[in-house]
């Protein structure tokens, strides 16, 4: 169910931030074992238009894997880059095609990049999430338990912190500010 002040369409919700866990990726040069990548920037992901995008394109920025449109607006010019990776592994909450997802979010003025829908758990887990989960395990194991799991990656591509689905963005804004202050 969508929260107050949110919109819902075709099973997705948008609440001040985009309401999804985000995933999708391909590895290069660590396609056989992305957990051995030296940095997040050694990986690549497929965007909504089917283009393979090297994560090195975002070198020098701090990442937070969530739907944080408000933080994006507030900190983008200071170096924050939010990347969205839709996933349908949590109660079928992201059933749309890539095109339907993009059509839905365009109405909200989202400007951060979206990557192709993918799996974040199981045998089909994409390399970006294999890497992030390997370096930042969860409380009860490495699997992602639900939408709204968030990852913060520093300017050097090193995973910094993993936040549970219940962690509100304002609760870790200080971590974002701290990483942005580091050169």
TrEMBL record:
It comes from Aphanomyces astaci. Transmembrane segments: none annotated. GO terms for molecular function: peroxidase activity. SUPFAM superfamilies: Thioredoxin-like. GO terms for biological process: response to oxidative stress. This is Glutathione peroxidase. Belongs to the glutathione peroxidase family. Keywords: Oxidoreductase, Peroxidase. PANTHER family: GLUTATHIONE PEROXIDASE.
């Amino acid at each position: 169910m969508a929260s107050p002040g949110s919109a819902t369409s075709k099973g997705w919700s948008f609440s001040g931030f985009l309401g999804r866990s985000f995933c999708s990726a391909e590895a290069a040069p660590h396609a056989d074992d992305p957990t051995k990548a030296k940095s997040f920037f050694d990986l690549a992901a497929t965007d909504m238009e089917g283009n393979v995008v090297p994560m090195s394109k975002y070198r020098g920025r701090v990442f937070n894997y969530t739907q944080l449109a408000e933080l994006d607006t507030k900190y983008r010019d200071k170096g924050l880059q939010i990347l969205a990776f839709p996933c349908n592994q949590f109660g079928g909450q992201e059933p749309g095609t890539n095109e339907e997802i993009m059509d839905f979010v365009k109405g909200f003025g989202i400007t951060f990049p979206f990557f192709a829908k993918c799996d974040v758990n199981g045998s089909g887990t994409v390399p970006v999430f294999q890497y992030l989960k390997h370096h930042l395990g969860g409380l009860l194991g490495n699997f992602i338990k639900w939408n709204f799991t968030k990852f913060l990656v520093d300017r050097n591509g090193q995973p910094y912190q993993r936040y549970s689905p219940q962690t509100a963005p304002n609760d870790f804004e200080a971590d974002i500010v701290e990483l942005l202050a580091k050169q």
